Amino acid sequence: MSITDTMSWHPEALDEIVSNDEGRPVLFTNARILTMDPLIGTMTGADLLFVGSLVVGVGPAIVTAAGDDNAIVVDCTGLTIAPAVVDAVALAGGRGHRSEYVATLTPGNTPDFLVVPDELATDVPSAVATLVTRPEQVRALVAAGRPVLWAGTDVPGRATAPETGIPAAADLTGSPRVGVWIDKNGFLHQELTADGRYDETRGGRPHAYQGRYWIDGDRIDYLDDLGFWAYGEFQGNELHHAGYVMKLG
Fold first, then answer.
1. Would you state the pLDDT for residue 215?
2. Rg (CA), the chain
3. Which pLDDT score is estimated for 114?
């Protein structure tokens, strides 16, 4: 029995998408699509085509090539596709160029979207409200091309959020990122220790900030002992944090 046999909406398509490691295109077809793109707008009887984590096509009649491309096809008759992430700044006219718009269902962007019955998705806010208040009515929630919800049910094996609460610090003994990071002017010295603690010296003032930190890939999150959170990013041999660019001393 397939792990998705309990999903009552296009279970075969879900099986194919979940097991799609060959880079097959995925096509959600015959939907009303609220692209939120200022040029494309809203389309009816339209198709959304994505490969992996990238939207590659949106509009009518893409389905005619589905067989040629060996696409996984999901019929969305009577349904609306809407962005699952909303760019409120763009909606308010706060971005100067179309290329700056994020969270729109536009070729080149990430396929983060909801599939909701037409009557529950007159616009993007109502579609998102359906996810929050009536998740059982959501046909699909897709994040970066991977199903998260399907037929109102969690997809087996999906990514899950971390448990609430402050995580324990990892033992970073031997990590190449442990040590004293110094900005180019020598103003900021940030020491990362193997027990998950940091200690900043600023302008010669020792212990200006102290607290805990966690590293996830190239991201570093800080929780200061004063109670505030901050963020940094490792880029090659540099640590970028709050406008400072640091290297290991």
1. 95
2. 23
3. 97
